[in-house]
Amino acid sequence: MSNSNQAEMNDVQGLILKGYNFPHIRYIILSIRDVKGAKKFCAGLASQNSTTGLHITTAEPWENMIKPDYCLNIGFTYWGLEKLIGTVNCDEINDDSSAEVFASFKKGAIADATEMGDTDESAPANWWKNGGWIPKQKPKPDGSDLHIQLTLFTLTPKNREKYYADLLQMIPKAASGGASVIPVYYQDSDPITVDGNSDYVHFGYRDSLSQPRIDDIVWNKPKLKKLMGISSIDDRPKVPLDRFVISSDADDYNAHPLLVNGSFAAFRLLYQDEAKFNKFIHSDPKTSPELMAAKMCGRWRDGTPLVVSPDKEDKTLGEPSSKNFNFTNFNYLTPSPNQHGDQSSDEDGLKCPYAAHIRRANPRDDFNVTGNSNNAETHRIVRRASPYGPVYDPNEKAGIQRGLVGLFIGAVLDFQFRFVTKLWLEMGGFRNPDDSPNYSGVDPLFGPQVSDTNPYDSIFAFNKNGTYNEVPGLTRFIRTDGSLYLFLPGITGLKYIAEGKIPPSS
Q: pLDDT (tens digit, 9 = 90+) per residue, 404-413?
């Protein structure tokens, strides 16, 4: 891995390196009807000097740390990239990149669905049925007519409509008439507010507490951290920049020059079945619902880590936020330097179960986990996802859609999204040794697939008062309603795409 070069902030899309924290978001999927017009549309978005129209937001710090009225980012499916630059160019990119860099992106989310656990109700045949699909005609079974994904961030719902209308106005007409690029799907995301705090997600957890700490970016420099109001000490290990921004100098992958300063992402539309979840956390008469929810996640509902405070929420940690590292300064085996509360090792999973969602997604210093030899840094993912749909009401009518939508970003899908999803979330036995009676089963927030015939995967086991408590009836609480594999180009790469070209191989 290389840490030799700082990010070219004006060439990298902003959402890769910094969460915007805009409250109102629209995730848009578009289909190309006319390639010439689509290229012109992309060229307009790539222009950073344009006084008209919207443009893609880079990672450069905002002047005086004042948020703009909107942020906008773009990704392409393989089908979209192939339409714009041609098959020959795509083949050259594939040939000049490591297999794990481009092959899974080219394969796409539909062909990869079974390996990612997208089966049964979550199978691609059922995608895009629940939500904002626009045309009467459904997408092609192979997804080849889904080409571009845009994410629009705004400060108000009114601005979301305004800038979305402005965005559509930028789309040129096709020679045959009609728009050259048409939106086929969109999903809005708005904050969930609980007790005056607007950073919750469905299932009732405080969110946006933990993201990778990326090395060699300006956001981690003392001056910028001070401007952002960050004064506490961050114990999280620094993850090399080339895990998130594709580099030509990485030690463990090669990438064609078009990919440099870009990244890859899995776009996911994840429905959350709150009724099933609430039923399960109330199903064990020996365990309070709040403790059950904490054991399943690895945090109490307010974000307090179980490793720091295994018996209750710890209000002495302060107000939960991404600027308060009291909620992320912890390890599982050896306490981090500024870890609050309980300092004892949790090697045996007595405080935070091995199965808990945050332990499986980021096992930190637990080197007993398969594939974790370096504080999980090879497998870390930047999550730019947010809730959609209303807060759950037990008396609501059936069919209300709610969940999580957004992008799971990393430079190499095989190292990051695909690895974590397949080996740490969807498969049992991700740690050795594992003292739990069902070898940890599957990630309890997701639950087993309908076709999962392993009886141990329908059990959630966690230590309570020195013995393991086994709660049966674990089921699937999260359903995949849509997915795309995306390439998020750098601005230079986007300009090449808009010209239908690629830079020469180095």
A: 999 999 999 9
C-alpha separations of 436 from 58, 295, 356, 389, 459 in Å: 46, 13, 12, 36, 11
Phi and psi at 221, nearest 5°, equal -80, 145
pLDDT of residue 1: 45
Helices 491-498 + 78-85 axis angle, to 10: 60
Residues 426, 217: Cα–Cα separation, whole Å:
32
Residue-wise pLDDT for 179-208, tens only, equals 999 999 999 999 998 888 888 999 999 987
Residue type at position 66: I
Tell which residue, 323, 322, 321, 341, has the closest CA to residue 331: 341
User: CA nearest 34: which of 140, 150, 179, 184?
Assistant: 179
Report how far residue 414's alpha carbon sits from residue 423's, in angstroms, rounded to the nearest whole number. Answer: 11
pTM: 0.95
What residue type is 403 in one-letter code? G
Short-list 133, 182, 16, CA closest to 482:
133
HSE toward the beta carbon, residue 451, CA cutoff 13 A: 8
Nearest to 166 by CA among 150, 148, 144, 142: 150
Give the E-state strand segments of 155-232 in sequence order.
Answer: 181-189, 192-194, 197-200, 213-214
CA dihedral 15, 411, 168, 503 (to 10 degrees): 120
Secondary structure of 186-206 as H, E, C letters: EEEECCEEECCEEEECCCCCE
Tokens at residue 56, please? 């893609």
Full 3-state SS string of 318-358: CCCCCCCHHHCCCCCCCCCCCCCCCCCCCCCCCCCCCCCHH
CA–CA separation, 391 and 55 (whole Å): 33
Please report which helix (H) or strand (E) contains residue 504, including its range. none
Q: What's the gap between Cα 310 and its chain centre? A: 27
